[in-house]
Amino acid sequence: MIDSAGRIHGYVRVSTSKQTVDQQVDALREAGVSAEHIYGDVRSGAKWDRQGLAELKRCLRPGDTLVVVALDRLGRSLSEMVALVGWLRENGVVLRSLRENIDFATPTGSMMAAVFAAMAECERALMLERAEAAREAARARGRQVGRPRATTPEQRQRAVDLISAGWRRAAVAKDLGVSRATLYREIPA
What we know:
5 strands, Rossmann fold, 2 domains
């Protein structure tokens, strides 16, 4: 039985409709999860737009416990599982996995949660590093990086000329057919 101040929820998942969740449901019920608090999906673990998982996340509250038969039921992608574990931790939800005998409410489980958090932080840093490297490579090849400008070089030059001639920015924006926000963004004061 699980000792928790909040509700105990369960999550089950199988990859295809030819499989059943019966064995997982039985294991969760034996672990103390009531049938009305078991959520599930028949969907590949590589897919993160799972309806049952989304519904479960909406129901979870700080102090609740989420029980799974095995961590791989949460998904197959390590980075997404790490993100989900991080989300659970940030929202005060304890994760317990029956097969791996991991309970994130225990000292060992807390250490495992810290390892997951460190992995998530590392993955985020690596993702940012890869994204910056891709932007640098695009810039080196002369490609547009980020949001494309809303005005042409000719429009920007006309705006500078009109502003220099004493026109108000609202009139310049109207003349060019752009918003004042666009004008301020592309031609700072």
